[in-house]
Specification:
By secondary structure, the chain is mainly α. It contains 6 helices and 2 strands.
């Protein structure tokens, strides 16, 4: 099962346009509504509409069973490897088998590098003294599940969430 989520690309936003759209909104008409729930809904809708027009966004598919270090590049190359494997079995030529082996080795190399980078990020976050305690425990558990023990266990001096 997967879900689709809207991801905002905040670094590409036009915040001058966003502010001008919010300034141009007649907030008195929204706030003076008799029903508090309706007012809250109108405020949310107005802010989100201005954001949608000013900040680029995209819809991504979230698959909860995906491994965290798998990315679209790896998945694309795996699909390509599988297509080449089918052709190699069908044609049974040395050229196709050579292509397949090269792609297979590339996939393995990419997965190993991606997993290593993921582990390094987790370890860096765990060892960062600025990491909040709740986040630290979650990361430490993830780190333990990845069979890494290179962490600084001085969590009591960390800032609280």
């Amino acid at each position: 099962m997967h879900t689709n989520e809207k991801i905002w690309l905040y670094d590409q936003g036009d915040y001058d346009n966003y502010r001008s759209k919010l300034r141009a909104t007649n907030w008195q008409n929204i706030i003076n509504n008799e029903n508090l729930d309706t007012s809250a809904e109108l405020i949310s809708t107005t802010i989100l509409e201005a954001a949608s027009q000013s900040i680029p966004n995209k819809v991504v598919t979230i698959r909860p069973n995906d491994i965290p270090w798998f990315n679209n590049k790896i998945k694309r190359i795996i699909r390509k490897r599988n297509r080449i494997h089918k052709r190699a079995k069908l044609l049974n030529t040395e050229l196709m088998w050579s292509k397949f082996r090269k792609l297979r080795n590339n996939v393995v190399k990419l997965i190993r590098k991606s997993k290593s980078d993921y582990k390094s990020r987790i370890i860096d976050q765990v060892n960062n003294p600025e990491t909040p305690i709740k986040v630290w425990f979650k990361l430490a558990k993830t780190n333990q599940m990845l069979n890494n023990t290179i962490i600084d266990n001085t969590y009591p001096n960390r800032k609280r969430c």
